[in-house]
Structure prediction request, 621 residues.
Amino acid sequence: MAKRVSASNVTAYYGGFKAIENINLTVEPKTVTALIGPSGCGKSTFLRSINRMHEVLPGARVEGSLTIDDQDIYDRDVDVTAVRRTIGMVFQRPNPFPTMSIFENVVAGLKLNGVRKKSILEDAAEKALRSANLWDEVKDRLGKPGAGLSGGQQQRLCIARTIAVEPQVVLMDEPCSALDPISTLAIEDLMFQLKDKFTIIIVTHNMQQAARVSDRTAFFSIEKTGDPGRLIEYDNTQKIFSNPSMKKTEDYITGRFG
Amino acid sequence: MGETPHRSADAGTGGTRVTQSHEWPAGASARVAEAPVSTRSPGGTGLGGGGALPRSRKFGAERAFRGLTLAAGTAVLVIIAAIAIFLIAKAVPALRANTENFWTYEGWSPNETEPKFGIGTLAFGTVLSAALALLMAVPVALGIALYLSHYAPRRLGTALGFLIDLLAAVPSVVFGLWGRDIFINPVRDFSVWLNKYFSWLPIFGGDGPFGKSIMLGALVLAIMVLPIITSLSREVFLQTPTANEEAALALGATRWEMLRTAVLPYGRPGIIAAMMLGLGRALGETIALAMTLGITFGVSFNLIQSGGNTIAANIANAFGEANETGRGALIASGLVLFTITLIVNITARAIIHRRREFTESAA
Prediction:
């Protein structure tokens, strides 16, 4: 189920602006990897490069190579939609489809894959909602609008929607930044369970969160505004937060950013 | 970590300097104090402080505006009531004088000594031509709107959108002239071709003459309602939250699938509203249809034979030579048209209302 993600010399641009430069890192299967760093350091850009969502923006492009289990996702012959089905994504703000019910939201990805049979969709929806720890809360109102749930429930709904298509890798772009602490805890618990099946890469601004949920942590930074973001240090989370090898990392995690 | 608070206090651009710049420079506050122009200046007691609370004013701008808006709102009701009373008062005597059934009689001769007129054929032609126009215009309009909002480069989209809006600015009489003198030729050729190969379908049957037909009228109408449907749908499509579009793409949707999953459902109420505005225009369109239809009285689904008529076109054609009863009869037909439009609008609102639970939580 889970695959290894490997980036070598990944450089991403927004038009003429170079947002990240020469990122090299490998994420092992069935682990949680946290990307941390100050705002504008390119961690979200890097995350969006991993499932080719970066290029959705006009003028945005990626150079270098990104592989999942040795297959280059930027290869010219690769179908971009297949890449995004293999590498799911959860966004910063919960974004359920407003016109769809809870059930329709969960199975939206399956329907896009051509699954039509009701019994299959129902089973998949229940499985995904159970995996997202949401089933008990919504099982009696699957036909109600997904946008009617609370923020934390919506985000878990989005996670259910993402994992319903059974991807190999799940990317999370600050998934808890719009949520209260209790919902955040629910999502963090969920990440622990999900890493049995998926490779998870999470961008977070919350360093306690990175320390709590991740096995490995990558620290990104920029020299100054306008410079491209670079990977400063990538190591076991425990090491990064207790004894980082780079001065910059230490400064950042102890709050002496500069 | 013990150092952290201190560090963050003067981190970045220098915290102390930032706070200072928010305060009034000494010189400025002194000047304010010397010349107290208004109570809203930051010097003195300030807006929310000091002294007894002032009494509320009895006659202020607040009350004046309230009165004005109330008057404007009432005026609408008065005008509508006045029109309705006038129309009914004029229509009733004519309807009494009618010697045939107003609903079923196929013909319009209200100026005779024994007035005979019926609304059935006109209402039928009105609904048929408008529905046909909408049927042809909506797919094209939605296609254009999707192209402009999601496929075209931004500059091209803006330019094309402007051109589409220009199309809406063409007066309907120009459309009528163009349809009657120029557009009729290709439509007639097309009708002959349809008749040759598809005459087994009743809608394309008949022996001619072809040309000034429901088909021509509906095509001209379709072009006329195209811009309004296009520009409204485009606005709605552009408002689709990027987050939803990205959610669809991240699930592995192609661009068309993304449009179907995120954009079209989100825009559905807007599309319906746009269609209703288009239908409203098509139902009420007068002069273009008066010029392009064959003006006959009869209920027929044949689209290509010369013929067809609508309530509005009939009013335009018959008003000039109408006597007292004739005018009353036309006014009665106008009331029927109004009722048709009303029913269409209510239906549209009902459709939008039905899925309100979803659309409201979207906002």
User: Anything to note?
Assistant: Chain A has ten helices and ten strands.
